[in-house]
Amino acid sequence: MSYQNILTSTTNGITTITINRPSKLNALNKATIQELHEALKNANKSKATKVIILTGSGEKAFVAGADISEFADFDVENGGKLAAKGQKLLFDYIENLSTPVIAAVNGFALGGGLELAMACHFRIASTNAKMGLPEVSLGVIPGYGGTQRLPQLVGKGRAMEMVMTAGMIDANQALSYGLVNHVSTEEELIPLVEKIATKIMRNSSVAIKGAIKAVNANFKDGVNGYKTEIKQFGKCFGTEDFKEGTTAFLEKRKADFPGE
Fold first, then answer.
1. Catalytic sites, residue numbers
2. How sure is the predictor about 156, in pLDDT bands with cuts at 50, 70 and 90?
């Protein structure tokens, strides 16, 4: 499939999706959100893809925010629809994707950009990364899940400070907050992410899918995460991956998971 705003490539089980609007610091517009949805959907369905890496083109930005020019004249109704559609199409979609998605944060991740990174299953940043939710400086609040995911990741107090000051934090501060898992040089960012992706791919993709559901359940209103874990744990026993994993362990050899 041909895209105007993103690039995709798949090598050795890893699909890399790159937001490619460097002249706009990779800002998210409606077309880019739609293309990201399609690319993620296709990667998730592909048997060739075991892990997805999401990053930005150029050396300055992962995603510097939403494209403000698209909604500066919106009214209350259109503003609400914008947030609802974006969350369903992209941000919630990534969070609940069965294929692991890692954000390689290679520069500015502001507003919708940080919200995009937070929707991924985890984040790795380069030393030049800067992160923040500056929406209140524009008279609006984060609308793509930022007010929900940021407190889950860094705690209520730190999230409140970041949202209310509209300030940025650097990569090392993000690491100390637990917002990112690792920090590397700019040159080593993608190799590090690929190294971690390779470790993930050694394991059962079926089990990982169940684990994603179980972990996410803990953060959903009205859902008992323990019950979800029990259900997903039980389902594993009916899979070929479970048979292979336990057999390989007992035979003292490396498992070769079929992904079924």
1. 115, 135
2. very high
